[in-house]
Amino acid sequence: MTLTTNGSRTTVLTNIGTLVTNDPTLGEGKLGVRHDAAIVFDDGVVAWVGDSADAPAADIGQDIGGRALLPGFVESHSHLVFGGERAEEFAARMAGEKYAAGGIRNTIEATRSATDEQLQANVRRLLDESLRSGSTTVECKTGYGQNTESELRSALIAGQFTDEVTLLAAHVPPPEYAGRADDYVAMACDEMIPACAPHAKWIDVFCERGAFNREQAHAVLSAGVAAGLIPRVHGNQLGEGPGVQLAVEMGAASVDHVTYVTAEDIDALAQSSTVATLLPGADFSTRNKYPDARALLDAGVTVALGADCNPGTCYTTSLPFCIAIAVRDMHMTPAEAVWAATAGGARALQRTDVGTLSLGTRADAIALDAPSYLHLAYRPGVPLVREVWKNGALATSY
Ligand code: NIG
Ligand code: FE
């Protein structure tokens, strides 16, 4: 059989040792695993999945050499629009200091004083880096502007690279609102959110001691919803708090971090459609405890893994690194961790076109320099992502 449709170029990848589809109708288990498989990409989407021996001909053919092929990672949590960096703060933490949300203010200053070109270059550099470690969809937050002009600029720059733009309207009260978080929230609700909303898909808030309390976070999310945005929440990162319950109540797409939770929080998540997005890289780099992924999964909560690249708590773009932590230290199985970084991320972004390799989904895939997805956790720190396809074409940069 030869596939010819719409005059577009088709690609067939054959001799795939382990194919993860995340489609249980196409293979074994939740990951929909097939062995000795082949896949066809046509016009940017998956057009055929089957045994390598039955693979149809296509314009481009590539032998994967018995290696593993997976859906590209779906990175549902990143903060890439920022100026400067905070390596000294990291070093101080490793010497015993505690992470405090206030460090965000240093990045706010550096971001406000950066040029557009500097911010764009930073986003591009980090997106290229994340592509090389296998992320083919990346959400990107604002949050280091914290005034209307700078948040708008951040949203516009993020939107040059991704459709998944999150307006992190309330990250921490900026210096000019020190001790006046309520006034900041009023400004954000009345002015910033309406001005920025046309350039974003999501509204986010850091609901945590030292950032914004429940009422303030509720006001910010409500203003975002009124402006047409969908809520997501940073919550329960540094201690127990109202973030998880607020996210569930507001029907948020996800609540992110979820490191300190009560049994009631887990219960509420399990009965909701809100995804728990775990960010173990942040816990690693702040020497925090890790979230109790097992308790969440065993209760039936949908779990995603994100890398949370940002200059403060977690300066990594690597989801393979997070998968390794999730398996080693959070007791997720390799299959659960891979699902969480692919299909789970897609759930957190309410996307059905990415995170799976089933018929009609986007042809975003990664080939590992390994025979199985198990090696992502088994070989930590090794750059195993050998090739990346985005929309059916080999991709090396944004
Ligand atoms: O996801 N928690 C809040 N926001 C970031 C940290 C931001 C920073 O410290 O610059 C996070 O960890
Ligand atoms: Fe974050």
Automatic annotation (TrEMBL):
Subcellular location: Cytoplasm
Signal peptide limits: none
SUPFAM superfamilies: Composite domain of metallo-dependent hydrolases, Metallo-dependent hydrolases
GO cellular component, one term: cytoplasm
Protein keywords: Cytoplasm, Histidine metabolism, Hydrolase, Iron, Metal-binding, Zinc
Reactions it catalyzes: 4-imidazolone-5-propanoate + H2O = N-formimidoyl-L-glutamate
Location (main, coarse): cytoplasm
First-level EC class: hydrolase
Entry EC number(s): 3.5.2.7
Cofactor(s) annotated in UniProt: Zn(2+); Fe(3+)
Function according to Swiss-Prot or TrEMBL: Catalyzes the hydrolytic cleavage of the carbon-nitrogen bond in imidazolone-5-propanoate to yield N-formimidoyl-L-glutamate. It is the third step in the universal histidine degradation pathway.
Protein name, UniProt field: Imidazolonepropionase
Species for this entry: Rhodococcus erythropolis (strain PR4 / NBRC 100887)
